[in-house]
Design a protein that fits this description.
The protein is mainly alpha-helical and 84 residues long. The protein has a domain at 7-57. It contains 3 helices and no strands. Helix 1 runs antiparallel to helix 2. The radius of gyration is 24 Å and the shape is elongated. The termini are far apart.
Length: 84
Amino acid sequence: MKQRGHPIRGAIAGLLFGIFVSLDLVIFGVLALDANLLALIPVLGLVAGVVLGVTTPLRRRSADEKQSARTPSMGTPKPDPNIA
């Protein structure tokens, strides 16, 4: 069975997000440095990142979508009425 999603990428992103949230809470004075919650937030971020990484995989674009993204359509040119 092929595993879908990106659990490692999600774990890294969740861990970094949890660390930055903990740092923000300390910097803005919401929590003290000795609060137990500061150690729990990165772990919860890691778990949430793994869960989201497994359940919501990145969507792959088809070849037609890639081609249309490379060559934007400018439309048909309209004649200039000021040129005689």
